């Protein structure tokens, strides 16, 4: 697809004739480079068939007739003024002669013709094609200060899209094009939730209506990536110098050394440009995304062989349902339900737990039905729509252990399975939840079926086959293969579990904390939250009553406490968190009350069956060994949830005058320094869903500015100085967030370059063999923020490092901040206390060193 803009006088919107159209002088081109005005006229020729001279590179797909990314719909108005944009300095900004004097009547307009008639027009066209310009903005004033009516002309189809107002901003994506970061406004890496359609009935966009229009993830500039990378090394070297660990050298000298390595790597004819060209070729030959199609699942997840439990899987806990019986809510605390062994408490008095399990299952299935019908509003922000592909990986997806790396099941969308897997006391059941006509079973029918399943499970514990999935991936690969070889019965049962829409784990006891579990770091934290977190992670039961490979597992305890566990590779945790928010948005009707009529089917029975397992002596031994390994992993995993209610996101914005996400990242930096006396490489997730099949990139929170702020606090500088340092740190973080979320991050790019090294390239270049390169990517703080999470008691995921490292997920509510903290070997108690101190320190800094609340506006990214 090629894009041109026409003045009304140059092209009639209803004309089928072939005409010359151009960019008028009241328009600017945004390339993401330095500012300058573009050539006033860039000539193109509209045709109903793409001209051979305009063929796209290999792998490009046809343009979609849907409105482009971020484009104001033709029947919508916009009052947002467009902003100055930029043009690459390589475009000669010379006014071209008028169209008629350059192009006489031509039989065709291709690059050769343009070169013949005007070299400057040729240069500009080549720039547009090579740089893959995709963002065009109309300024608020047209030629001679007058508004200009503008049309977008898609040359591949001849379609003309009129714009209603000259004040509308237009973002035009084409295959392989990347939106300019200056046009994006990303408030945080991932702080949004499912939103209702507020337009006229019948006009809501379909869930996947924008997928064909999504731009591709760009291959970033080699120079920009390594400029940013060099800058990111500065705080490490400065800290090492301060600690006296540079052995006679200085941070300045060490940085200069690495600058020289980078210069050699980027030199013309050097290895850097070669690797960049290889990566561009990968991009040209992948269907959706050079990272996701080629490497992401394998390198980020499937080659990692450690157990999924408390390492890769994520977890999320629901708050108590408002209809939870009062006696259960009161007795869901520290020692109300001591656990003496699996099955020590049965389900005889679990009416609320069974009812809530049926309700949550129904809500998850209702979401699936809406997703299948494309009745879920596409996620979007002011930047434009987000890729919805990850939603297709929620249901029916399972990670399959294999050597040398795992795989995910190739589950179609919509998922065709009509059953879920119910696990109770290590017994596995197949429960049909979708009728043959595609309609869902009623909640009362589900509830009755769950009671029947629980009654059957009470006959005795199952063999515990699911514990095998908690083990090291190589071990689980071998035991699974052996299990399949023992009997066809096992293949049938494994297929049922792996093909099911999701798992529902009905735990036979309410997990409680041990007697010596430390008190919460802040008094606002409920005592039951940590117990529920351990249970949802799977660690609380030593791997029992779970199947860790499933993309979604609902966990419900007899008293109705509930949460979710998920395997991370199919989709990032943000997507299922939106599903979970939807599921918890409607309260569960109390037992004994009627459910809504449209969700009821009182005279129907659900089909369910118990899955059988043929367990031989070898498999039984493997289960015992996996159980020992799971208990050890659970013992080493320290999970803690911190609720902090002294202020929340509203105060951070209105009084602190900072972006909540950047502010909380600086709090984590300060907390780590308080706990360990230094700062470390820090990963924050940046969502790249603005691009087709986008997943994540990295925000490197440990920056020069973050280092200065933390050092200032530790040195006891005055409040005004510290506020200025905090402001500089949050602004720097905001810039990184914006760049990493808009395809200009550095870590995924460097990963792609490294993966394309070949044996014939010789020794690994110094820029990659440098120990500091590895250290800068050893994420001792791995962090991620979700939505406000008002319906969530907490979230979490595990760290990948054994000592002095943390996996931290946080929810920035308006009045309440929640942090899920996981570490190995009992380190979270001290970190949580240090985080409380950091949050209080920063409040004092803002109150005593910042401007009055009414003096400035809340900063925006």
Give a structural overview.
It holds the Pfam family Carn_acyltransf. Residues 217-836 form the Choline/carnitine acyltransferase domain. Belongs to the carnitine/choline acetyltransferase family. InterPro entries: Carn_acyl_trans, CAT-like_dom_sf, Cho/carn_acyl_trans, Cho/carn_acyl_trans_2. The chain has 861 residues and is of the alpha+beta class. The chain has three domains: 1-177, no CATH class; 184-224 and 270-290 and 645-861, Chloramphenicol Acetyltransferase; 307-320 and 327-333 and 350-376 and 389-633, 2-Layer Sandwich (Chloramphenicol Acetyltransferase). It contains 23 helices and 26 strands. The strands form seven sheets. The chain has an eight-stranded mixed β-sheet, with helices on both faces. A six-stranded mixed β-sheet has the order 20-26-25-23-21-22, sandwiched between helices. It is globular and about 75 Å long. Residues 1-192 and 334-345 have low confidence and may be disordered.
